[in-house]
Design a protein that fits this description.
Organism: Rhizosaccharibacter radicis
Radius of gyration: 18 Å
Largest sheet: 6 strands, mixed
Number of strands: 9
CATH topology of the largest domain: 60s Ribosomal Protein L30, Chain: A
CATH superfamily of the largest domain: Ribosomal protein L30/S12
Strand content: 15-25%
Number of domains: 2
Oligomer: single chain
InterPro entries: Ribosomal_eL30-like_sf (IPR029064), YlxR-like_sf (IPR035931), YlxR_dom (IPR007393)
CATH class of the largest domain: Alpha Beta
CATH architecture of the largest domain: 2-Layer Sandwich
Order of helices and strands: EEEHHHEHEHEHEHEE
Protein name: RNA-binding protein
Shape: elongated
Length: about 200
């Protein structure tokens, strides 16, 4: 619609127009109606908003919520937190330095989640030897802790699988909308951290 990008649906954001012509974000892509798909990037969303792209795609007038960006950011962070809670209940995640490190060195981790406000040195130290693993850092330690029923958490590791993939996709969508760097992927020895997809 705006960029003509073709990405997997889970990596984009779907919108639908409600009966009252209000634009509704459909992050789970389950609401009825014709979907309007956008690449999750702040500038793309702003371009679509200011140039009337939503109205063109919907073939008629569309009312945009005035707080669309903050609403999307909050909803995506909630999905990340909900995904962590689901992984916890399924026994597919551990948290804390020791357990996370144990999963990394034991080859059990498929995704590393870190608090954005954690110590940079400690965050780097736990990742030594974690080549090829994506690292998602979009939540504060307090918000990450709340997902685990704790006051504060800096490190977590998820088992490979659908939950880890969904969490990474939601984190990437949040990073795009919030204008943050994409989640990181650990490269080969000596490469250090690389941007995912770089």
């Amino acid at each position: 619609m705006v960029t003509r990008d073709r990405l997997p649906p889970g990596r984009m954001i779907r919108f639908v127009v409600g009966p009252d012509r209000v634009l509704i974000p459909d992050l789970a892509a389950r609401l009825p109606g014709r979907g309007i798909w956008l690449r999750p990037a702040r500038d793309v969303l702003e371009t679509a908003r200011t140039r009337g792209a939503f109205a063109r795609a919907a073939h008629g007038p569309v009312k945009l919520p005035p707080d669309l960006l903050p609403m999307l950011e909050d909803a995506l962070l909630r999905r990340v937190a909900d995904g962590l809670g689901l992984a916890r209940r399924a026994g597919q995640v551990v948290f804390g330095f020791s357990k996370t490190r144990e999963w990394i060195t034991g080859g059990r981790a498929g995704l590393i989640v870190q608090a954005v406000d954690g110590s940079r040195d400690e965050r780097s130290r736990i990742l030594s030897g974690a080549r090829g693993l994506p690292v998602l850092a979009v939540m504060t330690g307090e918000r990450l802790g709340a997902a685990f029923g704790r006051d504060h958490v800096v490190h977590a590791a998820l088992a490979p699988g659908a939950l880890a993939e969904r969490l990474l996709a939601d984190g990437e969508r949040y990073a795009g909308i919030a204008g943050l760097a994409a989640p990181m992927s650990l490269g080969q020895p000596g490469d250090g951290l690389k941007q995912a997809g770089a």
